[in-house]
Structure formats: C-alpha cells, structure tokens
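From the shared-data thread, chain only:
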Amino acid sequence: MQSTPVRIENLMKVRLNIKTADAEHHDVVGTPFTFIYGVGLEGITPFEKALFGKSIGDRIHMEIPATAHCETLGHLELPIGEQTGILAPRTLEITVTDISRPADREVVKAMAGGSSCSDCGCGCGAH
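Structure, as tokens:
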C-alpha cells in the first residue's frame, strides 16, 4: 500500500531551502528556513498561500514586487532575514525539504514570536 505524501497545511512545521538572486541576478546558494505554517496574527500570508498543499520535493518560484515585501512575507519577513540572511528579496526559488507535526510547545513559541511591534504584522519594527 502506497502512503499519501505529507502536505503543508495549518500548524505544520515546514523546512524549506530558499534561493534568491542578488541585484545582478547571480544565483545565491540556497539556505534553510524553518517555520510553523499558519501562526501569523494577520492570517495566512501570500508566501504561505504559495506553499499550501505542497509536499516534500516540491518547488515554488515566487516574484515579490519591490514595494510588497511586508505584505507578501508578513510575519515571516523578519524570521526569513534572521535565519537565511535574505533581506528584501525580489525573486525566491523555494524547495520544500521537510514537513512534520510540531510539538505543542513549538506552536506556542511560534505564535508568541509572531506578535509584532508594528502595524504591518511582520514584527519588523515599523519599517
């Protein structure tokens, strides 16, 4: 019997490999990023919507308008920058590397960390 692949859904722990290009469009080596899907105070972000239903090995190409980083990444903008060093990306190449059920304490920690200090909900400090 073949098992159904695990798919990204609410409150799943998601591990990604994210690649971007610099201003001259040179490829940058991918870096890992881990987060709990769906814990943002403002709801699901466009970044998360692009990942919904994906399984391990799936790839997503995402274009982000220069003026829409906070709106697109939402509460994940700061963690992406902290974990990957990627700041204000225009293009992301994303590969899903792992999906699992997090421990309850991980969900609570992610929810607590998602509280923002600005109106946009990303926790950036009111850019």
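Residues 13-113 form a domain with the Chitinase A; domain 3 fold (CATH 3.10.50).
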